[in-house]
Amino acid sequence: MAGAAAARRLVEEGLRVHVFDKGRGVGGRMATRRVGAVQFDHGAQFMRARGAVFKAQMDRWAERGIVAPWAGSERYVGVPGMAEPVRDLLANLPVATATTVLRLHREAAGWRVEDASGTVHGPFDAVAVTFPAPQIMTLLESTGVMLPEITRASYAPCWSLMLAVETGPSDALFEPRTDSIGLIACDSSKPGRPAGTRLTVHATPDWSRRHLEATRAAIVAELVRAAGNHLGTELRPTHAEAHRWLYAQVETALQVPCLYDPALRLGAAGDWCLGARIEAAYESGQALANALLADLDLPA
Question: What's the predicted TM-score (pTM) here?
Fold first, then answer.
């Protein structure tokens, strides 16, 4: 969301951008996994607008059917999947997916971007990086530059269980906060989703840390049992798989809109700047775009 918000803002002001994403599709933690006829939002479950800027954006998406309310008027989800708002922001922009950026090269002509295949892209006048903070640190270390404040940001991991069951709860959202389970969401209760009963179970940060290197089979078995115990029913999966998010939720945010070094024309943004919310990622991306616009002598 941060990268998409920055890219759209820059394009609206007449700049040319090129977006790189290591995923097979865009969205990051606003992710939807599709397996045959079933699908799961196995990352972020919903978004809320607290401020006027993001609320106006959400209203525009709602008018076009890109988001819809779920489990209460304040919670919105992408339709038909959580990545739809990001796809909308990036519509008609040059986006290279399945492209892992390994290092940046600073030259007189500007920045060049080297990906994992050895291909070098550029030059570019400026670079905006919107990975999770630990991944940004790795990229900058390989480049030989640093944005020092970024070292203060920290994340919690999360094991996510995707579960299709014969019968299950009809309520949309549970937040039991047991030792192992932080959230159970009924994906199939969300607007615009396929029929069937599907659950996403997010493990707590502490449990995920303790089981970080466990096998996926072991994670599935333990979380199916724990979810069934909490819901008071035996869950009989027709499909079950686990996904490990190493950088799932911000624990320590910098409480600044973004980071930008005008001498390098290098900046970074993400939810790690302002807080563990989709809205915070959007605002951070816009703030970084505005810093670039001001530096490039364009109206912000």
Answer: 0.94
